[in-house]
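Table S2 (continued). Query chain:
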Amino acid sequence: VRGVFDSVASKYDLMNDLMSAGLHRAWKAYTVQVANLKPGERALDIAGGTGDLSRAFARKVGESGLVVHTDINEAML
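Corresponding output:
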């Protein structure tokens, strides 16, 4: 599995756009909305891929909060 994701890491977001017709972006926006993070809070993004959710969470928690992003594939990070 790691090898497969390593091989597509540089085009992962584009592949998601094409395979879901962009719907994955709506799913992620919904996830950020229902997470309802506030400034100063913490979030953990496990298997976070290219980090787009982590970046959105970071905007919500601000400088006083903390977001930790991890993924098995170093190429994704």
